[in-house]
Amino acid sequence: MQKFTKTIGLFLLLCLLGSIKVMAQKPDSTSAHMADSLARYRQDSLIKAKSPKVTGTVKDAATGKAISGVSISIEGFSAALTDDQGHFQIAAPSLDAVLMVSYQGSQRKFVALRGLTKVPDILLFEDTYTSIYDEAKLPFGAVPASRLGNAVSSVNTYGAWEPSKLETADSYLQGKVAGLNVIRRSGTPNIGANLILRGFNSLYATNAPLIVLDGMIFDTQHYGNSIIGGHVSNPFGNLDLHDIDNFTVLKDAQAGMYGTKGSNGVILITTNSNPDLATRIDLGLYSSYNYFPQSSLLPIMKAGDFRTYLSDLLGTTALTSTQIASLPFMNDAPSNPDYFTYHNDTNWQRQAFANGYNKNIDLRVSGGDNIARYVLSMGYGGNKGITPNTDLTKYNTRFNGNLNVSKNFTINTTLSFAYSSQNLRDQGLSRKTNPMFASLIKAPILRQQDVNSQGVESPNQADVDIFGYSNPSVLLSKSQQYSQSYRFFGNFNFKYQINRYLAAQSLIGVTADKVRENIFVPRTGVTDDTLANGSVVDSRLGSQVQRLFNLYNDTYLSYNRSFNNIHQLSAYLGSRYTQSDTYSNVGLGYNSAIDQLVSVTYSVPTLRVAGGDLGSYRWFNHYFNANYSLYNKYIFGFNVTADASSRFGNDVPGALHVGGISYAVLPSGSAAWIISSERFMSGLKFIELLKLRASYGLTGNDDIGNYTARQYYVSQALLGQQGLVRANFGNPALQWEQGKKLDLGIDASFMQDRLTIQADYYNNQTTKMLTQTPTASSSGIVYAITNGGGMKTNGVELNVNGRILNKPNLKWDLGFNIASYHNKITSLPVNNLISSYAGANILTSIGHPLGVFYGYKTNGVYASNAEAAAAGVSVRNASGNLVAQRGGDMRFVDVNNDKVIDSKDMQIIGNPNPDFSGGISTTLSYKKFTFSALISYVKGNKVYNYTRRMLESESNFYNQSLAVNNRWRGDGQVTSTPRASYGDPSGNAAFSDRWIEDGSYIRLRSATASYDIPLKNKYFKYVKVYVTGYNLLTFTKYLGYDPEFAVNENVLLQGIDNTLEPQVRNVQLGIRVGI
Amino acid sequence: MIQHKIKFVLSLFFAAALLGACKKQWDQRDSIADQRLDVNLMQQIQANSSLTTFAGYLTKIGYDKVLAASKTYTVWAPTNAALQNIDPAVVADTARLRVFVANHIANQTYLASNIQGGQLRVRTLNGKYVTFTPTTVEDANITVKDQYVKNGSLNIIDKPLTPKMNISEFVRSLTTVGGLQRDYVNGQDTSYTDTSKATVSGLDPKTGKPILVAGTGQVKFNKYFSRVASLDNEDSTYTYIVLTDAAFQAERSKVSKYFTTVTGSVDTTNALAGFNVLKDVAIRGLVKINDLPASLLSVNGVPVPIDKSAIVQTYNASNGIVYVMSSVNFKLADKITPITIQGEKPSFFERPDRGANIINRLRTDNAGIQYRDLLVQFTSSSNSEKAFFAAYKLSNLYTCQYKVYLRAVNDTAYSHIPAPGNISQRIIFGAINGTTTDPTTNVITVTTAVNYPYQNTPPYNYAEMEQTNAAAGTIAPNATINVVGGRLNVTARRSINMYLQGANTATLNQNNVLVDYIRLEPILQ
Q1: Which of B25, B37, B72 shows the shortest C-beta gap to A966?
Q2: Is A660 helix (H, G, I), strand (E, B) or coil?
Q3: What pLDDT does residue A351 have?
Q4: Residue A939 three-state SS
Q5: In sequence order, what DSSP letters do the residues of B216-270 get, joined into one string?
Q6: In whole angstroms, what is the distance from residue B213 CA to residue B228 CA?
Q7: If we measure between CA atoms, which residue out of B275, B277, B288 comes closest to residue B239?
Q8: Is residue A462 over pLDDT 80?
Q9: Across-strand partners of A410?
Q10: In the predicted structure, residue A1054 carries a pLDDT above the cut 50
């Protein structure tokens, strides 16, 4: 592999050298001396007169009718318009030139002459057509995909008017970009998604792509955890999707232009660019309905089955049958004073889900003149969550303005402010306070309210039950988890055009972000907790503030020049600087006197915990970027950055050192060959475009901790005194993780752009990967952070788009993308690290992918005591004792055949990384009706169903799934469900392949039907009504609520279902009006 | 109108969404794989043609609903053939039938194949226990075992499980033998009023106390059972011996002279002596006749000599086994046993104002055994602390002569008392009414009948010291104690006082009172 990489590198280098040589041989003699513009004009006319004339016809792709008034141009040389018959004639500098065809309301198209003077008919599709000519909005300007030399995907939102405010920019990308695996964290509004671009590159540093919004880094890192159980505060929630025009995803080494922030790729987002001068108002009103169908509930026991289970379970405790019979829930006499407390059949699970209406409004006003143009947008969203009493209220505003101060001086600005407040509930592993979990495990024989011996219900909600479990209705109605977030994100971009070729630009912007969270969990009805110091916790209170302030500057010189329409060179030299300051302040308190006192100030002072964090770092990135194309066919790119960061150690071995600072020097290069533009291809009419691409380069990841390279101290309490202890070893050699990215790709378009294909193979290698190296215990510190690891990810991607039906009134588009990655750890300082989460073991081991599950394999259940005795296998339980297996116990695979099931018998039982994932999109339009759908799918990923493990552990008083009705009862019963046994002495519920499931799914993620109301009224530009359904259909074998979830961004915790809100099904009705 | 349209469109979407939304992936998992887990016990019994009689009984007494309920049960169902010879009177009487049928059903699932240690006592729904082994239940054979169903397990047996009497019921039902023992047991029945269980008719306006409805809140109990063993309790098993009248009388007469009463009542003496005999005929646990050893330990720790040839009748009760025996030859020494009075538990002191000087100590002796003792140690020398005593009230002494022993470990010598380090104490006995209290100082003066002389308590003597040569004090005509041969002699059962008295000196530390215990050993004749 390495040899291959080297070969490619050499090839690229040769290409680069070759191109320089070509440049040198063709000096720009004609234009070099043309100082006078008139003279130059004459000269140009002369050249044009001598130039070959090219003719052709432009037609509408659907109707086949000729289009008049289409602009045909050759950049920097000539231009023409089509006549009534759609004919045009244009002078070309050479027969290798490329015609740019553009027309209002149609796609922009580039036609290579391929040596022809009469080009074949040019067919134009509408401007929303997904084609090979779609522009990618790269940092230094828009480039059509047909001319890209790198692996880039571009997604145009066309206003993104379909999605509701439940959708955020990150989750919106699901299924739209080949190689970008978007895993929505849960169904909570605004919760966002994990973006995984081309697999993983790091173990402890971030794996999220860098987000650059309107030329400025949009900080999506999480600084500190939420105090709300299972919650992740999502910065994308403060970015309104309706403002976004375009997403451009840099997947390969080109991301290296962002230096040590580019190792996971870059997503460039462009908002509200405004091409029109005319004043325009767009108003969108839509309301939607979230619902959770009864059929989506998990099949858990009702009162009858539960009591039979309880009876079996209690039989395995130390209680005698008399004691069991005298338990209040086993006493069936209506005269029993507790009769009505324990003789119910409550569907707790149903109560944990609520349907709800959402209301959203968007307003966008744009306009201006040739001096100043603006887009002003505002939005409001009131959305309900799937959990009762949760909701999300969002307000957002954005102002984008372009100001032409003078002919040469322009100022662009984007200013945005967003505020959201959200009512939440604990989720995830908060067993005592997660209402969804509590409602699954709560005994159905109980009821929500207190009840007296006559069966009369009290308005008071029932307290913690006889089994010690919380009352879900209290958690839903009385607990408070509240989050507010604000983000200001704005910048000014000053551009001065020094001369025709040379320009200087400087962008200055700030991000100011604040997240405030408050929590309160009442004492009544909620299981007590215990603090580390042994104090019993009744009510729980907390508040947290997290702030982020980023200052950002990007200043560069650009040079753009075309030489004789043969050589095109653009070069950029500049620096990016960012200073980031974070602040967090958290206060947790316990045991306020009564449940009406909900603020931390009312907590017991001796139990209060206060904490916080300050973090700041600076990053300075110098870059040089050059793009060169020859004859519009051979495209070369080169990029090098030199990064300095306060995070890096001062003494990084092998790095560039300037003034005592270590610099990360990261070069990359790319080459592309547009074969279809070659003259010998002119005969192959069915090929619209064929391009080969290759790129290779270095990237870096600077997410190594602000202070890890330095030595620092943390506070620690000892015998009631507070002191400082050393927290780490300063590691002056600590450096960025280094990524090597190789990409080989092909872009092709056939049948006059009706079928486009992009395919890529990539190979990413991470070296100097951050790892935790265990240290000698005498050091007093458990591990040191070093650059001791390595990882490799390779994969393939395919993106196919096509127009299947292309009639004037009936058009059907179908798009399909699929991607696969294979991840492997190549080096670690200590092999076979095992992490634990939610009872799962996760193995990190050389030669294996990240995050594989490590546990026992099972092979059915012993059908009888005799069978178990014959096997003679014992299980080593948690306290280290051997417990002989008996009838009804799980038959674990004894790997080493020592008749003892212990950690030596664990093996890899599942890989959470998918075999492949992707999306299918389709649009069918008939006259004024449009129907579109997006399907997303994932195949072959294994997930750990923690929730089901809790519901089938048969070891405690949790309510159980209906599968537990099949539990082993007596000799000879062949079943896959083991016996009920209190405390699980035989380890039947241990982490094993019983809980590992296939997480594959295919989902109708969204489906929209819209209708353009034909209008005679001149005041309205358009009126569009539509209905959209989200997550309507999901096909999966997964046994949990939803196969799509993510605990957080930790790559080791992927595929663990820790009881999060499932994806919301949502039906939306909207109207959109343009004035 | 628009509202309606919205609703229509929404409902269309719902319909589409619901169609494909069922949790099909669970279909395989939550359906019942084993058909038997889909039926309850009642259905399983009804489905078996050989159990129709039993099923009929269940329906008759309403237990069909019990066995269809969501709790779990173990059922031993006798076949129709096994129920052929059942007493028609039982079947006719629903109450008796319920007791009979309930004896075949237990709460919770017990599997014959899971029985550890050979057998299991299982409590049935009528409160009785049955003995369950992998192949039998009581004396019935299990023909089909461990048929698990949804709510429990069914066994088919070849004999009915007729409810047995417990030991109490058996003793009370005796007619031909053991009449005296039966009468004794019956005579110990009594009752008390539990105010918390009584019905309150109102509150007394003067006292504010509740007025109880007569006859309510009565709790019956048997004094003999509560003092010896709960023979009417089904939960624990006993081996119980019923003495024939002759044997009972023989044993009683052995001990009756130790229970002489003040009035000379023969009945009372017989009752007391009878209890002395019968307190040791209950043995914890069930010992089968073949397993009977030569001697067992009674619940009160007294050896019970067993002569198997003396067994005249055996009864397997629901909570144990009863042997009717014509002779149990208890050893007298096991029945009339020494009486130990712990020194640290005195009834009163010479004067009530010396609390600060009284120490209840926890010490370890030379054998490493922990004991508590009483030490009265004064901090200043004063005449008022001369001859200080601790008094003990003794009741229920056997009527006989006693040897008196004192154990007092004098470990205070080296720190406080100059050589020879002895303290001197004496034990004296007096009538319970032989005390007078000074009304101003509350100092108690006693009149004693039996006075042992002062005896030195040498340092670190861990042995008991026998007291001898008692001298008669003031012996009233109706006294129940006197001195015979220099020893305490008790002539009738009446409470007396015993005093441990310190030296009659004001010298600091020499007048200490120190005692671990005093032991009265009856002299048996």
Answers
A1: B37
A2: coil
A3: 92
A4: strand
A5: -SEEEEEHHHHHT--TT-SSS-EEEEEEPHHHHHHHHHHHGGGG--SS--HHHHH
A6: 32
A7: B288
A8: yes
A9: A404, A495
A10: yes
Dist. CA B470–CA B477, nearest whole Å: 19
Put simply, whether A289 touches B (Cβ < 8 Å) is: yes
A1060-1067: average pLDDT: 92
Q: Are A465 and A432 within 8 A, CB to CB? A: no
The whole-angstrom separation of Cα A237 and Cα A167 is 9
Interface pTM, i.e. ipTM: 0.80
3-state secondary structure B87-109: CHHHHHCHHHHHHHHHCCEEECC
Nearest to B372 by CA among B204, B489, B473, B515: B515
- The dihedral formed by the CA atoms of A889, A892, A894 and A895, expressed in degrees to the nearest 10: -170
**Inter-chain contact B109–A315, Cβ cutoff 8 Å?**
yes
* Residue from the list A306, A321, A1027 with its beta carbon closest to the beta carbon of B107: A321
Does B34 contact A at CB distance below 8 Å? yes
- Given this model, what pLDDT does residue A497 score? 95
A274 Rama class: left (phi>0) / alpha (psi -120 to 50) / beta: beta
DSSP-assigned letters across all residues of A201-253 = --SSS--SPEEEETTEE------S--SSTT----GGGGS-GGGEEEEEEE-SG
Nearest to A149 by CA among A252, A75, A14, A10: A252
Q: Is the CB of residue A543 less than 8 Å from the CB of residue A589?
A: no
Cβ–Cβ below 8 Å for B6 and A1069: yes
What SS3 class is residue A794?
strand
Per-residue pLDDT at A35 exceeds 70: no
A332 touches chain B (CB under 8 A): yes
- B31: nearest CA in chain A? A963
CA A595 – CA B45 distance, rounded (Å):
54
List the structure tokens of A155: 């997604």
For residue A973, which residues of chain B lie inside 8 Å, CB to CB?
34, 148
Please tell me the distance from the alpha carbon of residue A283 to that of residue A1023, in angstroms, as a whole number: 10
Paired residues of B502 in beta bridges: B425
Whether the CB-CB separation of A240 and A379 falls below 8 Å is answered with yes
Q: pLDDT (tens digit, 9 = 90+) per residue, A876-909?
A: 887 888 999 999 999 999 999 999 999 999 999 9
Task: Name the residue among A475, A473, A507 with its Cα closest to residue A492.
Answer: A507
**CB-based contacts of A106: which residues, under 8 Å, 6+ apart?**
A60, A67, A70, A124, A125, A126, A127
Q: What is the DSSP letter of A679?
A: G
- CA proximity to B330, closest of B487, B150, B524, B192: B524
| Mean pLDDT for chain A overall | 90
Spatial contact of A405 and A383, defined as CB atoms under 8 Å apart: no
Give SS3 for A76: coil
Whether the Cβ atoms of residue A627 and residue A570 lie closer than 8 Å to each other: yes
State the DSSP code for A277.
-
DSSP state of A50: H
- State residue A48's pLDDT score: 67
What is the rounded distance in angstroms from the CA atom of residue B273 to the CA atom of residue B294? 24
- In chain A, residues with a C-beta closer than 8 Å to the C-beta of B106 are 321
User: Which amino acid does the sequence have at A969?
Assistant: R
Structure-token match 């009230």, residue found: B393
Q: Do B30 and A962 touch (CB under 8 A)?
A: yes
Give the integer Cα–Cα distance in Å for B210 and A967. 55
Dihedral pair phi/psi, residue A852, rounded to 5°: -75, 145
- pLDDT for res B337: 93
| Residues of chain A contacting B154 with CB distance shorter than 8 Å | none
Tokens of A833: 């690290």
Structure tokens at B458: 């040498």
> Which DSSP string do the residues of B452-504 spell out, in sequence order?
PPPEEE-BT--S-EEE---EE----TT-SEEEETTEEEE-S---EEEEEEE-S
